[in-house]
Amino acid sequence: MLLSAIQLLLFLSLPPFLLGVINRVKARVAGRTGQPLLQPYFDLWRLLHKGAVYSTTTTWVFRAGPVVGLAAVATAGLLLSFGGAPAMLSFSGDFVLFAYLLGLARFFTALAALDTGSAFEGMGAAREVSFASLAEPALFLCLVVLARATGALSLSQMLGEGLGSAWSTSGPALLLTALALFVVALAENARIPVDDPNTHLELTMIHEVMVLDHSGPDFAFILYGAALKLFLFGALVVRLALGFHFDSPWAALLAFLGGMLVFAVVVGTVESVMARLRLSRVPQMLVGASVLSVFALVLLLR
Amino acid sequence: MLLLLALSPLLFAALAFTLPDQRRRPLALLAGASLHALLVVVTWIQPPAPALSGWLLLDAPGKLVLGTTSTLFLVCAVYAQGYLARRADRDNRVFVGGLLVLLSAMTVVAISQHLGLLWVAIEITTLTTAPLIYFNHNALSLEAAWKYLLVCSLGIALALLGTFFLALASAGPGGPHSLLVRDLASAGPSLSRPWVRAAFVFLLVGYGTKMGLAPLHSWKPDAYGEAPGLLGAILSGGVTNLAFLAIVRVLHVCNAAGERAFAADSLVAIGLLSMALAAVFMVGQRDLKRMLAYSSVEHMGILSLGLGLGGAAASGAFFHMVANGLVKGVLFLAAGNIHRAFGAKTVDKVSGAAERLPISGPLFLAGFLAVTGSPPFAPFFSELSILNGAIRGGHFWAAGLFLVFLSVIFVGMGATVLRVVQGKAPGGRAPPELADSPLTAGPPLALMALVLLLGLWVPRGLLGLFDAAASLVGG
Amino acid sequence: MSRWTDTVFILVVVIDFFALASSRLGAAIRAVAAQGALLSLLPVLLATGEHQTAHVVALALGALLVKGIAIPLMMGWAIREAAVRREVEPIVGFVPSMVLGAVGVALAFAFSGGLPLPTPEKHPLLVPTSLATVWTGLLLVVSRRKAVAQVLGFLVLENGVFVFGVLLSDFMPVMVEAGVLLDLFAAVFVMGIVMFHINREFASLDTAKLSALKD
Fold it and tell me: Which residue, B121, C127, C135, C196, could crosslink C112 as a Cys pair with Cβ 3.0–4.6 Å?
């Protein structure tokens, strides 16, 4: 129980820190000192104290977008276990719910963007949705590979004890899946090389352009939701990569946190050494990720 | 003896590569071809002993292919004397040397009983032909050579994979662990059947590419269109027959392994497809040499069909292989003469060939009649015996389609050929340097006489050879 | 050892995908070179104690030298020499070709299930890897417009055939193996020269330039 509470607390509190680490890594590679590690928290705090401005052309959809988005992502977090304790919610087939909660968040964000009636936001929504239509199959394929390798249908079992033995019998397939999942994580969270989270040039933006019109607490929700989502995908990748089983739940939690730190550093490094891909090349990368996981699946089914 | 037969052309090739004299070099070709033909005659009279522990052996199908190839090559070598003398502008070192290497490789294919060696020899024929196609050194011939090399090397690579499959099929417990056709055939039922089947598919695709069966014929119109006529004759009358021989060898193994039905059905299907495709492209074809290329696709289809039907049709297929090889020689050499005399090879620029070239023009017409199966030329009788085999075997659909395609092709090809041969020649008679000379018109004329002779009278020994070859592939 | 062999086979297939997806000639050439180098490990990894070590080592070294080093260097040289533009320029787009590649891999695995190895001690991934690589090679040759890219496809195809050849290395005569390498070399060499001319021919139909190139 205590562990579960700690786990929930960590899930709700750590994500902005993850962003902070990524930003720090990028700054260091570029030779800058960089912003404080806790800067994302300060940003959220500041935004929460501001007022929100709503255009008169928008409807309730615009206001619901950030709230629903945040709620959906937070609920998805309940399905994952981050180490020692089991997940809050777990049932057979819950990975479908996981994927669709993330889909729901995206749906409402896109809808809110369309509700503004702005051409730019419509463009952003279109791009986001078209890439998502490729990222989602890839995510599902990865999850199917996991289900097949462990013989389980719930996320906490798929990433739980069965994984250790699965690594020893079908290691290469799981490695390919981890790679594919990492690519999906980059795409889903609008990181380089798919999207640049720092850009403010509308023509090249994808995710950022959708949330241009949100302000104050709404924008804080969106930023926080995005951080949660990054944390979730990081957790998937890290749990998959760590694989082996720990006897002590505390050791497992510690290993998980260490793994997340490594994940943040890897993401930061990728962002530093790669350039953003041309928009037309993004689908190619996502299809590549799908192909890798199909191959992993073929290896398992053989 | 067999080694001497295979290696003697290489000696002349070395001579051709070292001779500095541009004008005398074609004589090396003639000498090499003559010696080769002489040796082949000797092997026909007195069967040679197997060489290289049974890897080289002259059996019935090998004898037929070797005989056709050697005859055709000798005729082309004579023609080359006249042709190369008129093409003094071109360095002929690579051309002459390459042709002799090609002859050596073709001989190895014909007498090889080892599928690995067979593959290597076919690969060498591919490699040596590419620079020969590029003889004219212009953008078009370059493109043709490139396509030829690429498509054929793909086919060759697949054939190698098929050969590996066969080797694996023989590697099971109790298998012969060998790629000698004789060992494989005698081990028959102990071969792993799924692998034999897979091997047949890959080998048919691989060697079928080299043979020019549809839908893998795409290199043919380009290569035949751009290569000198004499090379076209050797390619369509010799090299394609060798690929056919390779398929015969593989079929022999398949029969022994009990995969006859599958292999035969594939052969019949791909044969009819080739004929259909050739018919479609032949109607309204404006380019003489490309038309001949599609005619070659058609006849490869006929060979494959005959082989697949088996029995009397297979015997007819071997007859047709010889007849078609010789007629193709006539057609390509005559077309080469017409091409040079008009400086063009499309029907809108070439007409009245009979007036401009009084020998080559009518010869082209006669060749057309022969190749489309008109009596009394040899292909008529070979096609008749394939048809006979098909009907006697109860394959009425195949027989019907065969007749339909043949008549479409006759009409399509006839329209083009008549426009070329008849009518008024734009420049009247050809000037002496382009006109028929004994060395350029004589060789195809001699070949044509041979085709007519084979139509009127086939020696008993030759008939026996056709049947012996057909009995190898059974059916 | 089986773990390493697994890894090699899987990497070979992953490189197939990479070759289908990469839009840069240089990257594709390096990938094919890496594939060749990986393949040269196979004779050593799959060797069982009973056959001659010298033969195995020679085969591995030969493959490394030809597939991993010589041919990639030649291709790089051809690109520089003929000033070929560095993009691949596919006829079939990258995404469709990747999907086709994936379908091919799945089919290769499905088919190899129906082809039992008569020598069961050999590795189970060998046949599907070989078929998948051959398929990728065919796909690359057919779907690419550039001569250099087509030759790369041909190399991938040859690599697939080589994988299968390793399976037979203990009872096929050495001649056939040597034939594979030699023929590969010869094929690409002739192709390279022709390619070189193709670029000159089509870039400028200046025949004086063509004869100037002769030695």
Answer: C127
